What does this fold into?
Amino acid sequence: MIPTPISDPISDPREALRMLMEGNARFVASNPEHPNQDAGRRAALAPAQRPFAVLFGCSDSRLAAEIIFDQGLGDLFVVRTAGHVTGAEALGSIEYGVSVLECPLVVVLGHDSCGAVAAALDSLEQGQLPGGFVRDVVERVTPSVLSAKAAGIEDRDAIVDVHIRQTVDLLVERSQALASKVAEGKVAVVGLSYRLLDGQARQVAAHGPVDGAA
It folds into this structure.
């Protein structure tokens, strides 16, 4: 078996985002290339990995990152939690992807009809939090919901976009390692909102050197 050659690592956040969005466009058009998924690629990656993006997304089963962005083995360093809520483990994993694996791009991926956002809204309306550790998820989403409502936003999918933006801001605010690389222009943090019906991801927030950066 001949290992599939690995191209030079991507260091430009703009190039990383372009690759990601081009993959999503192929997925939407039902024309995926399924790159980097053969035995040769597997063998080439065995000694080390160098993904081009950290993808911090919701755990929803309809949001399989390598599928909806048409990527393969070694392309994405994926971190997922319900409602893409941010705790120490998630932050540590994202920092590992940026500081150790040298990914130039961090993506926060949310989606319409998000169950975590719906649960936070229901809890506020009913005045009752769920039990177990689901409560922790809801409590971490609630500030985004309250912020959206304070701005007069009532549509649930629009609230999802607010939550994505809040998460992007939170990552940069809480992680000094990430904030430093963003300030240096080496890393961008981008928020994408995914539509379940048509499979399209659109940019709703950004920090760092990409088009539309805040």
